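REQUEST FORM: STRUCTURE PREDICTION
Request ID: SP-0412
Submitted by: Lab K.M.
Chain count: 1
Length (residues): 505
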Amino acid sequence: MPQTMWNADEIAQLCYTHYRIKLPKQGKPDPNREWTLLAAVVKIQSAANRDCDSPDKRVQVTKEVVSMGTGTKCIGQSKMRKSGDILNDSHAEVIARRSFQRYLLHQLRLAAALKEDSIFIPGAQRGLWKLRPDLFFVFFSSHTPCGDASIIPMLEFEDQPCCPVSRDWVNSPSVVVSNLEAPKNERKCEDSDSPVTKKMKLEPEAPAREVASDVTHRQSFDKQESGQISPTVSSSNFTAEGLATVTIAAPSGAKVVDVYRTGAKCVPGEAGDSGKPGPEYHQVGLLRVKPGRGDRTCSMSCSDKLARWNVVGCQGALLMHFLEEPIYLSALVIGKCPYSQEVMQRALIGRCRNVSALPKGFGVQELKIQQSDLLFEQSRCAVQAKRTDSPGRFVPCGAAISWSAVSEQPLDVTANGFPQGITKKGINNLQARSRISKVDLFRSFQKLLSSISEDKWPDSLRGQKLETYQEYKEAASTYQEAWSALRRQAFGSWIKNPPDYHQFK
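STATUS: Completed
RESULT:
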């Protein structure tokens, strides 16, 4: 992936322009009182060596947004449904990834129909496909992912483009901040292991900046049934590079006075946060679950999900049936916000670096991580700067927007996990499902399968009587082997939904 093909500001600007032009007003924040987060997947394709073998010929590169998501919310555990028709997690990164899966399904349908414009070409084995060698994918997020990647050192004299973070965080748990960053946990998770400490340096050229946050007054995440695997190495006792408590050496003699807080709670089985005032408030490197408003969630933090995708791929279990190799992100670009290169590397790569014995084609990727200097116009910081004298509450937008580069109905606007505007009476109608819900993506998968003659099916699906979503997922044996290895070696406390939430057909 030659770096000369793109830079961080180009990716950010492309995504911001796409947001303004391609996404409708419906689902976007009220510019006077709301903010949101943005994420996207960008396809980068090179035309090198297609028309000319000359090394001096200029390489033509196309950059295209193929999926996009906005959102800041999750539903609580009590709102989850066994029919697979609700979005449990509507954070922008998750919406963008599910929209990307929808795009991949569409591209597989094109490939199966022998359309030349598909991103896939035939693999070596029957029924399997692989990505064209001249393209790769870059993930964009307007803010650092919630959870471990957002626990960033705060310097005494740091450059802050937004309003300063209140030093009353420790004493004032009701300070209004965001769904992603929160000043106070309602309770500490139980300590299970003593913290592993390591000195960290904040990159001088990447100063920490103001946090984009929301309301933090939330109930604690209580211990629950989680389908856990007893880890041989968990992220609470993992000693690979990057795990650390925040004992930080600051550049140029600047003093670390605090850390940006995350509202994501430690999961059961992980060492807990100390809750001490100042830089030692959080224990870093831990698995965390997103906070809910009075109703605990089962959604893992975006930092944890991105780290998982960096090992098992973005395609998920279902699509792995049709793929020779997982679909990995080559790079991650973060918009202007509080940021530390070392923290991002630790959270997304370092925690899994020692994972081994993965199936063929799977591996811990050396994800390229960069930050743009361009601020998202509807981020918390940008909107807050414009509304200094505006009356009324300042809140995160309640809607989430999904967009996929597909030929039919690319847009999807949801609130509380269902299409926006659906009433309680209409919830069980077919129209009351997001196009990126589990059940709708499963229907698209089934439609793809039915369009292919059985003698051309991949071996993982031939001769099997599979019916439920769970059965199809479990039959993707190489994916399940990789995911089990990752959980066993690094993410043993990962919260899994009970199997009865995946029994729909």
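NOTES: The radius of gyration is 22 Å.
Reviewed by: T.R.
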